[in-house]
Design a protein that fits this description.
The chain contains ten helices and twelve strands. The chain is globular, with a radius of gyration of 22 Å. The protein is 29% helix and 17% strand. The protein has 347 residues and is of the alpha/beta class. Strand 9 and strand 10 form a beta hairpin. A four-stranded mixed sheet has the order 1-4-2-3, sandwiched between helices. Strands 5, 8, 11 and 12 form a four-stranded mixed sheet that branches. It starts with a helix and ends in a 7-residue tail after the last strand. It folds into two domains: 178 residues, Aminopeptidase (3-Layer(aba) Sandwich), CATH 3.40.630; 77 residues, Carboxypeptidase-like, regulatory domain (Immunoglobulin-like, Sandwich), CATH 2.60.40. Belongs to the peptidase M14 family. Keywords: Glycoprotein. GO terms for molecular function: DNA-binding transcription repressor activity, RNA polymerase II-specific; metallocarboxypeptidase activity; RNA polymerase II transcription regulatory region sequence-specific DNA binding; zinc ion binding.
């Protein structure tokens, strides 16, 4: 925060461009009660683990609705996409009841995500040095018939790894952070606590490394337009004061590069023939089975890797519109606007 403000005031063109062209939201602490507990106990002998849970005893990173399992169950019943959406999956009703086992922090973050049309997000963590991306949930293996006994192989007990439709985009985003970090990609040193789990890249899919259901990353991807990743900044959760300057230098370029990725892909506005914006229109990118929606002003953003895409805009009561959009390697989203005409179907 201090760096962005100071560099902006000093006229740094890169920071000025980032602050001027991007709505930046910063949350200093998602779990302030837990942090306070850990801080009081100090960092020695693993006392930071006290801060993993909220005062009510919730682990925030496993407290969001498990929408991935709901999506996969609907896929197996062939309900997707006509009866069950592949995006903006609604929060289950039982989860919204007042007596549900949901932390106040989780409810606040979900309301915040619904209020703001976020495009890209990162939750910053410690204790490891890598970037983790969805899915964090491991997909259960399909049941085998009793007539076909399973071989005695421990590998069969592991759930299969399910990639998101945006797997290539998530890898790009993760690499943009890890490769700009001063030491994150130096995996020949091994991981912080074990061997390197990132295939010498500094990045890993969450379900492959540490499977967990109900993560903020999976929820963000399946309930909103936002692509969210977990960034583990360094091995020590509570670096000593003398180490903070180096930790900042390690991560400074990565933080800037990552935020700039918001402006990669396509963006635009969906309007009717009178120029009025159409909210909640669906943007479909050919070959990627995950759609996004326009915000209240008819505007949308879709992070994509460089390439040529067939993109369509659809809305209730309108004829769909299709066009080809080109995404270049340079930062700067390609403008792709749509004008939809009213359909003649009488509903």
């Amino acid at each position: 925060m201090q760096f962005l403000c100071k560099e902006y005031q000093d006229g740094n063109p890169r920071v000025r461009g980032l602050v001027t062209d991007t709505r930046i939201h910063l949350v200093p602490s998602l779990n302030p009660d837990g942090y306070e507990l850990a801080h009081e106990a100090g960092s020695e002998l693993g006392n930071w683990a006290l801060g993993h849970w909220t005062e009510e005893g919730f682990d925030l990173f496993e407290n969001f609705p498990d929408l991935a399992s709901a999506l996969w169950a609907a896929e197996e019943r062939r309900l997707v996409p006509h009866q069950f959406p592949n995006h903006h999956i609604p929060i289950p009703e039982h989860y919204l009841s007042e007596d549900a086992a949901v932390a106040v922090e989780t409810r606040a973050v979900m309301a915040w995500m619904d209020k703001n049309p976020f495009v890209l997000g990162a939750n910053l963590q410690g204790g490891e040095k890598l970037v983790s991306f969805p899915f964090d949930t491991a997909r259960p293996s399909p049941p085998t018939s009793a007539a076909a006994p399973r071989p005695l192989d421990y590998e069969d007990e592991r759930p299969e790894l399910q990639e998101t439709p945006d797997h290539a985009v998530f890898r790009w985003l993760a690499i943009s952070y890890a490769s700009a970090h001063l030491t994150m990609a130096e995996t020949f040193r091994g991981g912080c606590h074990t061997q390197d789990v990132t295939d010498a890249m500094g990045i890993v899919q969450g379900a492959k490394w540490r499977p967990q259901a109900g993560s903020m990353n999976d929820f963000s991807y399946l309930h909103t337009n936002c692509l969210e990743l977990s960034i583990y900044l360094g091995c020590d959760k509570f670096p000593h004061e003398s180490e903070l300057q180096q930790e900042w230098e390690n991560n400074k370029e990565s933080l800037l590069t990552f935020m700039e990725q918001t402006h990669r892909g396509i963006k635009g506005v969906v309007t009717d023939q009178q120029g009025e914006p159409i909210a909640n229109a669906t943007i479909v990118v050919g070959g990627i089975n995950h759609n996004v929606r326009t915000a209240s002003g008819g505007d949308y953003w879709r992070i994509l890797n460089p390439g040529e895409y067939r993109v369509s805009a659809r809305a209730e009561g309108y004829n769909p519109s299709v066009k080809t959009c080109h995404v270049l390697y340079d930062i700067g989203a390609t403008q792709c606007n749509f004008v939809l005409s009213r359909s003649n179907w009488k509903r």
